[in-house]
Structure prediction request, 126 residues.
Amino acid sequence: MTTTPTETAAVDTAPAPQRIRYVTPAVSIHEDADGYTIEAEMPGVGRDGVHVTVADGELVLTGAKEPRAAGTRLHGEADRADYRRVFDLDPAVDADRIAARLDQGVLVLRLPKAQDKKPRRITVGD
Prediction:
């Protein structure tokens, strides 16, 4: 078999913009009379890599993993994707009082209900 060289069209070799890939963290959500608690699992994320934002009635959680060790990667099975999860906020949540902490790879958020939105008991008079 013989091959003859052919002319190839010019190819753009500029790198494509890198897209951020997100993984949806597993969460647990609990409600009590005073508000909600959300626990989001984000292993590999440090305190500086966590971002919690509230805008337009949405709670957005993002977490960027810590950089790996320097050097040439020979083998890898761990996913390098960062975390992202979006929740629609209950109108009863007092967004100004949302608190967050990171505990061993679990982001724990407390979303308190506004005082005027909490259920209250009304006594019946005579």
About this structure: Residues 1-9 have pLDDT under 50 and may be disordered. The beta strands are 22-23, 27-32, 35-41, 45-55, 58-65, 82-88, 99-103, 106-112. DSSP finds no helices and eight strands in the chain. The CA atoms of residues 92 and 113 lie 5 Å apart.
